[in-house]
Amino acid sequence: MEFLSAIVGLVPCLYDHTSKHTVYIRDLKKNLQALRRDMNALNSLYEDVKARVERAEQRQMMRRKEVGGWIHEAQDMVKEVEEILQRGDQEIQKRCLQGCCPRNCWSSYKIGKEVTEKLESVSGLIGKGHHFDVVVAEMLPRPLVDELPMEETVGSEMMYDRICRLLEDPQVGIMGLYGMGGVGKTTLLKKINNDFLTTSSRDFDVVIWVVVSKPFNVEKIQRVIWNKLEIPRDKWESRSSREEKGAEILRVLKTKRFALLLDDIWERLDLVDVGVPFPRSDAQNKSKIIFTTRLQDVCHQMKAHKSVEVTCLPSEAAWTLFRKEVGEDTLNSHPHIPWLAKVVVEECKGLPLALVTLGRAMAGEKDPSNWDKVIQSLSIFPAEISGMEDQLFHRLKVSYDRLSDNVIKSCFLYCSLYPEDWVIHCEEVIDLWIGEGFLGEVHDIHEAHNQGHKIIKKLKDACLLESGGLKERRVMMHDVIHDMALWLYGDCGKEKNKILAYRDISRLKQAQEIPKLKETEKMSLWDKNVEKLPKILVCPNLKTLFVLDCNKLKGFSTGFFQFMPSIRVLNLSNSGNLIELPIDQIGNLVALRYLNLSCTRIKELPIELSNLKNLMTLLLDGMESLKIFPRELISSLISLKLFSIRSTNVLSGVEETLLRELESLNGISEIRITICTALSFNKLKSSHKLQRCISYLILFNCGDLVSFELSSSILKRMEHLGFLIIDSCNELKDIKIEVEQEGTQSDVTLQNSIVARENHHFHTLRCVVIHDCSKLMNLTWLVYAPYLEQLYVLDCESIEQVICNGVEESLDIFSRLKYLLLNGLPRLKSIYQHPLLFPSLEVIKVYDCKSLKSLPFDSHTSKSNLKKIKVEESWWNQLKWNDEAIKHSFAPYFQMHNSPSIFRRFRGVQN
Predict the structure, then answer these.
(1) Strand pairing of 670-675 and 137-139?
(2) At how many degrees (to 10) do helices 28-58 and 105-130 cross?
(3) Residues facing residue 674 across a β-bridge
(4) Mean of per-residue pLDDT scores for the chain
(5) Would strands 206-211 and 137-139 be described as parallel, antiparallel, or unpaired?
(6) Tens of pLDDT, residues 305-351
(7) Cβ(550)–Cβ(527) under 8 Å?
(8) What are phi and psi of 127, to 5 degrees?
(9) In Å, how far from its chain's centre is CA 547?
(10) Tens of pLDDT, residues 499-546
């Protein structure tokens, strides 16, 4: 039967053997071989193209769509051809007459036709694939955001959330993040950058990251931005000048909503010069520029709409970061190590870079004795700890290196002489800089002080010093910055004995310490427990000696200063039990330029001090035990420029003599003094020279002072008076300013018709304290102090008004006032009869003023600088307001606070 079927099937084939359709049947076997051969060629070509595409993609290129389509076609073709080849082989096997005659012509015809067609398709696909010999991929378009490598952040969540809220604020187009080195500014900026990858709400067209550094290069910054914006290379390279490239960048950026992240700016970068459009709150695209800097002033120069200080971590977050770096395995290896680790963390004072550096240095350290050694090194010479120099100090040193001149650098390093966590009084440290000669040959000490304040501002702007509170009159140095400064002074650790700071003075007695002293130029000793210092210190090169806060120290041995021939600065302040100086030695310190005996219990100033002919600064503040003040001592100090004797007991009669001796000095420029008698006050009023020198005046316990009268000509001569304290003058009834008219003189006692005259002001008066003046009725004379920044009025039972009713309304009254304290004024009814703008006011405190029912606030009173209103809750609740809306607008600044004790509140003001 099968044979008969084959014969029957052969009939139509023989009938049309010559037709083109029989070719499909006749050449099936040959075509199958050809298809198999071409398919092998296609497979080889496919593997080659695929390999080249994969290599290109590894180079961050993108396969061309045409190539991608061909690869998919080739993959599909392989499957289809394999199926056809299998069916074709089966068809050949079914043939009879040795494979010449198909059993089923129709079936053989169909498979033969498919094979022929696939031959053509495979051939075409091979030809198409050969066109990809040169280019299989193109450069990938830059992503909208380039992810930056960074470690997981710890402890910065609140700061980051605050920054994100500001980014959402349409009024903030430019934001500056500033702070000391190593505090985490770059880490925060990287986190902002990387979170743009997943945060669709901000919907920027492009996010650009640029590291600026110093000195910045505008062309380099433009090149980074060009690369990100994918401006065609030929178009970019045709722009030959910086201005033309800036114009091209501007053309593109104006059409986009962009975020530009600038890291590590050290000086103003002109965005117009670069080609970056200035983000404005009224613009449609709401672009953002965020930058980091170590210099607060750069935020102002860059016209930041918001400046955010990045501060050190709080203690809990600091501990979490340190644990992460040191590892749980190490912390759990011994029961003492967690406690020791917390001591190390405390030394870092929340600085992330220090925490990371020390954490990595201690990772795997499971011996508690080695932790003890590290803690000891942190207090003596931290640079010896692994990683501290390379990973920490050298990175922080960049801020120091970029200070503008050597004077500022010397002033910064000098602050390391103070103990860690010490609150440094700006006035005191500037006096020291003058004594050291850092500010040059001083002819005008007031100008030198102005220069010193500018230096402090620059150091604060550089985040090398930080505010120590009390209205910008104090600064502090972070512990890690303090350690770096000591390291820098010793030539980066190469001459570490040039400056020695001892918290444990008993170390001075150790044999290994003695040779160090011969190299020492500056030495600082502070130890609350020390009762005696070594009898002799051989310090031939010593120029500066601090003995601070040694409250149990009563005196020095006879020969203590014998081998310190070059000493220029001697600071013995705040050693509260020091009762005497070595009389036979102190007069031999003839190179001495600065001597500070403040807040000691020295009873007698030795006449031998008169030998100090180079002494420029003598500070005798707070010497409550001083009984003997030799005549002609002060007049012998022929180089004296600055003399201070505030809150020091001076016997009656000595005070007037002291003023005469000061008046006799040719070079005296600045006097800070407490006066206790009307006679002394009248001496001051009669001496033009003393008036020009007074910068700080305290009238204390002047029982015979009934009226405080100053003429406008005296005011003009008191051109340096910055601080005025009137304390315990219980007979003082009024304060009068005598305004001298042209050609005449009239008494204007500031009653009911005063108009403050611009030419008769206290131009320099910044701080006024009135305490315990029971008969004083008002302080209307303060209209003559338009630059007043701080006003404290305490325990004056008769005061009814600060500024009297009837004074002509003036917008300038208290226009510079930052801090106002009213305490213990039972009859006070009014601060001023009209509402005041208070454009500078930061803090107002009111306690025990039961008759005061309102504050001079209205809807125009400024809140731009206001930080807090600290008052008693019951008093706040009974205040009267012209409008409830005004009360609600000031309510967020209210802080409940009970009245401090009289002693504590006034001692705080005096300091």
Answers:
(1) unpaired
(2) 30
(3) 698
(4) 85
(5) unpaired
(6) 999 999 999 999 999 999 999 999 999 999 999 999 999 999 899 99
(7) yes
(8) -60, -40
(9) 31
(10) 888 887 877 777 567 777 888 999 999 888 888 888 888 899 999 999
Query: What is the layout of strands, in order, in the sheet containing 306-309?
Result: 206-211, 258-265, 288-293, 174-178, 306-309
Phi-psi category of residue 99: left, alpha or beta, with phi > 0 → left and psi -120 to 50 → alpha: left
The answer for residues whose C-beta is within 8 angstroms of residue 551's C-beta and 6 or more apart is 528, 575, 576, 577
Torsion sign, CA atoms 364, 481, 265, 308: positive
Question: Could you tell me the CA-to-CA distances from 853 to 319, 831, 845, 879 in Å, in that order?
Answer: 48, 10, 14, 5
Question: Which parts of 753-853 are beta strand (E)?
Answer: 767-771, 790-794, 819-823, 843-847
Q: What is the pLDDT of residues 248-274, one digit of tens each?
A: 999 999 888 899 999 999 999 999 999
Give the tokens for residue 570: 């001697």
Contacts of 206 (CB under 8 A, 6+ apart): 144, 228, 229, 256, 258, 259
- 509: DSSP letter: G
Q: How far is CA 335 from the centre of its chain?
A: 37
**Token pair belonging to 388:** 């501290």
Indicate the pTM of the whole model.
0.77
- Strand, helix or coil for residue 791: strand
Q: Strands 819-823 and 723-727, how do they pair?
A: unpaired
Under 8 Å between Cβ of 466 and 183: no
Strand partners, 671: 643, 694
* Cβ atoms < 10 Å from Cβ of 89: 13
Question: What confidence tier does 582 reach under pLDDT thresholds 50, 70, 90?
Answer: confident
How far, CA to CA in Å, does 26 sit from each of 20, 23, 106, 807, 851?
A: 10, 5, 12, 124, 123
Counts for the chain of helices (H) and strands (E), in that order:
31, 28
Q: Distance (Å, rounded) from C-alpha 280 to C-alpha 278?
A: 6
561's tokens: 């200063």
Which token pair is 742? 């042209």
Average pLDDT over residues 723-745: 80
Give the N- to C-terminal CA distance of the chain in Å, as an integer. Answer: 126
Beta-carbon contacts of residue 820 (< 8 Å; ≥ 6 apart): 790, 791, 814, 841, 843, 844, 845
Q: Tell me the CB-side half-sphere exposure of residue 130, using CA atoms within 13 A.
A: 7
Q: For residue 846, what are the CA distances in angstroms to 299, 743, 868?
A: 35, 44, 11
* pLDDT per position as a tens digit, 470-507: 557 899 999 999 999 999 998 887 787 888 888 878 77
